[in-house]
Amino acid sequence: MFKRTTFIFTVLVAYVVLQFLWWEILLVKQSDTIISLKQNIAALTTSDDEIILRDIADLQKKKTTRLYMIVGEGTVFLLILLYGVFQVRKSMRREKELASQKSNFILSVSHELKTPIAATKLQLQTLLKHELEREKQKELLQNALNETSRLHKLVDNVLMANQIENNNLTIQKEDLNLSKLIEETLSRYFSKQLEEHIITTKIEPNIHYSGDKELIPSIVINLIENAIKYSFETVCIDVVLKTQQQKPFLEIKDNGCGIPDDEKENIFHKFYRSGSEHTRKTKGTGIGLHIVKNICDLHGIHIKVLDHSPKGSIFQLRF
Ligand code: ADP
Predict the structure, then answer these.
(1) Which of 81, 113, 155, 319 could form a disulfide with 248 if both were Cys (CB 3.0 to 4.6 A apart)?
(2) CA-CA-CA-CA torsion sign (43, 48, 52, 55)
(3) 170-213 pLDDT per residue, tens
(4) Residue range of the domain that includes 224
């Protein structure tokens, strides 16, 4: 489809440019003929050589001025046309990119939906078929519950991305105890990682902020999930919340694969997934950081990503 459109577009542009050049040449030729005829008429209508020479020189000047005018206006027109063509080509390329990212997104979402559903089904079937000890039953139920939470988070993200797309994502601000909200979010979604000291926290108590109590946790969940996902060896995540210049300041540091400088801007774009091997190995949809950025923008939170030393990334949020 895109190939055909590009082909038709190129043929049309080539036709317009050639047609335009042809008209320019015709116009110059026509102007030359008119001037030559006028020069002949001038020579025929008077016998005074001085007057003839003066008229011919005047007409010659006119000829040069007209040539400059035609070429000048033609060049401006051509430049405007080429600028337009360049802009149309750019937006066509962007559309093409978006269409391919969308199709990748649908594939990833379907895959991500299937995995927890299949895992939950298997765990429930095992529980149903076998007489298991209480401990084992509890473990399977916990696993099924974790998979359901994963599914829940994914569906939440897809719905939120859709709201962003339709400009429907709004915030309801209220006074929040940010310290408590972040602590609760961590213990609700990352209790295992906290227990295993994969996540360490340094949270200054009673930091208040006026924000949306449903959306702020989404920022934390998405950033920590990424930190876990993109750390391939031993995972070590630090969550720091403190007051800086009388404003809340949140920092999430990981020691994962890091983000190259030329991708630091793009990672916040919709459906963007890094082309690195690390990213290709992990499951994802490319909407997490897009959602984070939009929630931050709605709140006026400034988000920044830096390199962590010796490796990894730091996401900083200035509220
Ligand atoms: P997803 O993780 O589903 O691909 P995101 O929007 O959450 O989508 O992230 C976009 C991209 O940014 C990821 O594909 C990954 O390449 C990169 N990225 C995000 N967070 C991290 C991180 N903590 N460390 C390294 N790369 C990251």
Answers:
(1) 319
(2) negative
(3) 889 999 999 999 999 998 888 888 888 899 999 999 999 999 99
(4) 174-318
